[in-house]
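Following up on my earlier thread - several people asked me to post the actual chain instead of describing it. Fair enough. Here it is, all 176 residues.
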Amino acid sequence: MRVQKKNIALQIIYAMLRLMFKKISIVLIAFLFTQCGQQPLFEENTPIPREGWYVNKPLVFKFKVTDTQKGYNIAYNLRNTLKYPYSNLYVTYYLEDSKGKVIATELNNIALFDAKRGKPFGSGLGDTFVHQLSIPALQQYKFPKADTYTFRIVQYMRQDPLLGLLNVGVRIMQEN
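Reply from S.P.:
Thanks for posting it. Predicted structure:
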């Protein structure tokens, strides 16, 4: 009788473990599908040289847009170290069509650290921090025509060259 009770208890435990494993598997698979679902239309990051980022050296990104019916969300990708000397970063973007006509531009003030406490924003490991920051004026942005576009980023800090940045880039996602 005791052996039967043990067998029944073991069967119940195994059934519960199988059920729990199935639920965890379903959640994990759903998570992976949502993370891997949408690929960016364009994403590129430019390494900043050790000697720094000069004001007269804009970062240039070229990409092609074919669907003008949908909106696009454009964001900066940034990687900085704790040695970055400021709490923020001033950059101006220039969005140009294939003929070089500027169709959108704006100066952005990007907070990289809490100005009062010095705590870095973004996700980090060690002394390196990663930021993906939406550009408010370029959310749900509709391109005027199918074309090859150029996205330029210029740093507008008082220090030239600017040190402490590792990579600067752009990510363009098409809305569903």
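The helical segments are 2-36. That should answer part of your original question.
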